[in-house]
Specification:
The complex is a heterodimer. Chain A has 5 helices and 8 strands. By secondary structure, chain A is of the alpha+beta class. The N and C termini of chain A lie far apart (about 60 Å). By secondary structure, chain B is mostly helical. Chain B starts with 17 loop residues before the first helix and ends in a 5-residue tail after the last helix. In chain B, about 40% of the residues are buried. Classes of the chains: A alpha+beta, B mainly alpha. Chains A and B meet through helix 1, helix 2, helix 3, helix 4 and helix 5 of A and helix 1, helix 3, helix 5, helix 6 and helix 7 of B.
Chain lengths: ~240, ~190
């Protein structure tokens, strides 16, 4: 391992020797017993999250150099804290992708208008396909676990025609959706509407279920995707009601 | 609406909606599963319930506990709560050295599982002890840097937490790592 690799190091990629050392310490932790001076788990989390001043942090790191129980707890906190941070970063990229999706949707709407106009011409009375031909079946391919909202979180949504739409990335037409909508206030979260076993990633909310929600309120809609009865993705999105 | 003392709530002190309860519980199940080691998996339901109770006893209206955009409890906060419960339980069990019920009822004396390769297990343990011993010999800045590195932190993260310059930190990790390696080789743990 070179000095340049130190800055790029992530666990288990560039430094197999360090991984071997980590393994040796982890084995010791399996049978070690916590000491009376071990810091509380929440202090370890705070240290890992960067909430402690450097002096206090140094003290704790020195403790973990000698205490494999706390070292194990520290390593776990690092993994989880990093994961939670990456989730937040993912949410940021979701917003960026939503902006992309917005423009793509406009293109799709424009394309759909052209297609519908063509279809209307072909199927109008006297048109070449005015018989009882079945509508074309839309088939999407692929599998995935990320939910991306197509309904804008910032624009006011019409209460008499509130339509929630989302998509899977990558496309996964086999997923079944459950949607829960709650009315979020500073004090509480109140269920508004729930729909289960949706085969398409789109849902129109009956206006009557929104009757008690005041204008400008924030609703939270949560999509849970299942495959063969198992949850494979879940995500919540805010929206503002007009 | 779930009220205090309701069977679903586990005696939670404040009323809250069924929807919020279900959603919180689902997210906690997810968080506990991530934190919980396999040998503690049988207790994960209890840990979820404990985490849920302590979560609801805190003031959920605290803005720092909620993400800004959707006013939900932040993922980090839920993960932290789950982490605290699981680590507490791991420590409690290690102190008590609890034995599973089926082993207590067994007439045969319980013999610790030596694993598939006892020699290899022993070598791993001896290596762990040697690392601990060698870390003590490192000068403090290198010891701190290498310890955090072994805990899984990247150089930038070590620098930020200890208030050091990134380049300086990379150098400390590199030198400290070299010192550790030399010490281990001296104890018979070469590459």
């Amino acid at each position: 391992m070179s000095l340049n690799d130190v800055g790029r190091e992530t666990r288990g990629t560039l430094d197999p020797e360090a991984d071997r050392w980590r393994d040796g310490l982890a084995v010791l932790a399996e049978t070690a017993v916590p000491q009376e001076d071990c810091p509380e788990p929440d202090r370890i989390w705070a240290a890992v999250a960067g909430e402690l001043p450097p002096d206090e942090l140094r003290e704790m790191v020195s403790h973990t150099a000698a205490c494999v129980v706390c070292a194990e707890a520290w390593r776990l906190a690092v993994e989880l804290e990093r994961e939670a941070t990456e989730d937040l970063e993912d949410e940021g990229s979701d917003e960026r992708s939503q902006r992309t999706v917005f423009w793509r949707n406009w293109a799709q709407v424009a394309a759909m208008v052209v297609v519908l106009a063509g279809a209307a011409f072909l199927t109008h009375e006297g048109g070449p396909f005015s018989g009882n031909a079945p509508p074309p079946e839309v088939v999407r391919s692929g599998a995935g676990t990320r939910v991306v909202a197509l309904t804008s979180p910032s624009e006011l949504q019409p209460r008499d025609d509130l339509v929630l739409a989302w998509e899977w990335q990558p496309p996964a037409p086999e997923l079944i959706s459950h949607v829960e909508i709650t009315w979020e206030t500073a004090e509480r979260s109140e269920p508004i509407f729930e729909a289960r076993d949706l085969l398409v990633p789109r849902l129109r909310i009956p206006p009557e279920s929104l009757a008690r929600v005041p204008s400008g309120a924030t609703l939270l809609w949560e999509v849970t995707a299942t495959r063969d009865g198992k949850v494979v993705a879940q995500k919540s999105f805010p929206l503002r009601l007009e | 609406m779930v009220q205090s003392g309701d069977a679903n709530s586990g005696g939670l002190p404040t009323p809250f909606s069924d929807g919020e309860y279900r959603r919180l519980r689902r997210r906690l199940v997810h968080a506990v599963r991530k934190v919980c080691p396999a040998w503690l998996a049988a207790q994960s339901d209890d840990l979820v319930q404990d985490a849920l109770v302590s979560l609801m006893r805190r003031d959920l209206s605290q803005p720092e506990n909620r993400s800004e955009e959707n006013h939900e409890l932040s993922q980090s906060y839920l993960m932290r709560t789950a982490y605290n419960k699981v680590v507490d339980e791991i420590r409690r069990r290690r102190v008590r050295r609890e034995v599973p019920i089926e082993d207590e009822e067994s007439e045969e004396p319980s013999i610790p599982d030596p694993g598939p390769d006892p020699d290899r297990e022993l070598r791993r343990r001896l290596l762990g002890q040697a690392i601990q011993s060698c870390l003590e010999t490192l000068i403090q800045p290198r010891r701190l840097a290498v310890t955090l590195y072994l805990h899984g932190h990247r150089a930038k993260e070590v620098a930020r937490r200890l208030g050091w310059d990134t380049k300086q930190t990379e150098n400390l990790i590199f030198r400290g790592r070299q010192d550790l390696q030399e010490c281990l080789e001296g104890k018979g743990f070469g590459r």
